[in-house]
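New to this. Comment on this protein:
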Amino acid sequence: MRYTLLVGLALATAPVLAQTAPVWNTSLPAALAQAQATQKPVLAVFSGSDWCKPCMQLKQEVFDQPEFAQFAQDKLVLARFDFPRNKKNRLDPAQTKLSEAAAAQLNREGAFPAVVLLSPQGQVLARTGYRPGGASAFDAYLTQLLAKR
């Protein structure tokens, strides 16, 4: 009986757990191809995961939250481009090239964190960065930006 209850609970929470980790593209061309296929905008995020405090806050307070995963699931194609500085966190050279290419196209000024909202055709719709208030405030802000497109 106890085993059945635990299995039942595990199965009941499985969909919730699946939503807590959204899939992030690490290639801008792949994200844009997915956006065109699904007609969803791209949310491209540029971060310094091991040195930029606002980047860490944005990830922890917004992108790691189940509420954001649920919001983004049907509305956005996600792309993340990280620029860690610590040697132990360095990305492989191929990924570094992909991140640098995306930054050359969308984040020439080198702002961190930079959040760029793109149309499925790749046009910049809006730029933003860290915004306090957590996932619900960020989701509401993105909803406003999307309504303007």
Observations:
- The longest strand covers residues 42-47.
